[in-house]
Specification:
- By secondary structure, the chain is of the alpha/beta class.
- It has a single domain, classed as Rossmann fold.
- It has nine helices and nine strands.
- Strands 5-4-3-6-7-9-8 form a seven-stranded mixed sheet, sandwiched between helices.
- A hairpin with a 2-residue loop joins strand 1 and strand 2.
- The chain is globular, with a radius of gyration of 19 Å.
- It starts with 13 loop residues before the first helix and ends with a strand.
Length: 256
């Protein structure tokens, strides 16, 4: 049990003490080899089992790990974005998650979702959802210049966009997304790249996909960061999550 101490002139700030204890715990976790090995084993086994398909947000499949959704919740609360740009829509659960968070923040924030194929049954469910008024969908490739321009036009005038990339997971595709959408993020904001975990999975894990070790979102992030000093990897996020589909993919914007 932590012993709380204070002096007559300097009482303990319990909130700050908790934050410091948490930060110390996260630093310790970053160097915990056994924990990392256990987390990696769980990631491989749970991905094989289709674990991420088990969850929904407000009734729509979200196809994400709960740990990453908790991380996004923390980011949105800290960042207070007035817009969220997401590449990759699938069943729409992530769009609805972001829209619900923006609703909690108040204001007129909205989500712009981009997907090369918005299936009609998914579109219908998203459109009739209570969060639909905060969602805008654009169909087309996220790396097409015309589609990217539509996205930029959709967020024109927004002061603090959050960008989340989760569509095609090849190096070339994600790198181009980073080049196109990173300028939307302002200093102090976040850019999240999902499925960087591909680089850490067994070599034969994605035999039927165009991505794999050496060609995936993590390699794209590494290439991007070599020539863009506006963003840094938030290593504390990796450490505290332990299990994540976005290791080295939580990027903070540190420059205008």
């Amino acid at each position: 049990m932590t012993q709380n101490t204070s002096t007559k002139d300097q009482p303990v700030d319990m909130t700050e003490q908790f934050r410091q204890e948490r930060a110390a715990r996260i630093r310790a976790m970053a160097g915990d080899k056994a924990l990392k090995e256990t987390a990696q084993a769980f990631t491989i086994a749970s991905t094989r089992a289709g674990y991420s398909y088990n969850f929904s947000w407000l009734g729509r499949p979200i196809i994400q790990y709960p740990q990453d959704m908790m991380a996004l919740q923390e980011i949105i609360w800290e960042m207070q974005p007035d817009c969220v740009v997401e590449t990759g829509i699938a069943h729409g659960g992530s769009l609805i998650f972001s829209a619900s968070m923006l609703t909690l923040l108040g204001g007129d924030g909205y989500v712009v979702g981009v997907d090369i194929d918005i299936r009609e049954h998914n579109r219908a469910e998203i459109v009739k959802h209570p969060m639909a008024s905060r969602i805008r969908m654009i169909q087309g490739s996220s790396v097409d210049g015309g589609i990217a321009q539509q996205v930029c036009n959709s967020v024109a005038g927004r002061k603090n966009p959050l960008v989340v990339l989760d569509s095609n997971h090849t190096h070339e595709h994600v790198l181009r997304e980073l080049e196109l959408y990173s300028p939307l993020v302002k200093k102090g904001g976040w850019l999240v790249v999902f499925d960087t975990v591909v680089e850490q999975m067994p070599a034969d894990f994605y035999p039927d996909r165009p991505w794999g070790i050496g060609d995936n979102p993590m390699t794209a992030v590494d290439t991007f960061l070599k020539k863009n000093d506006r963003f840094v990897i938030d290593e504390a996020m990796d450490a505290k999550l332990a299990v994540s589909m976005a290791p080295r993919g939580y990027l903070r914007c540190v420059k205008d």
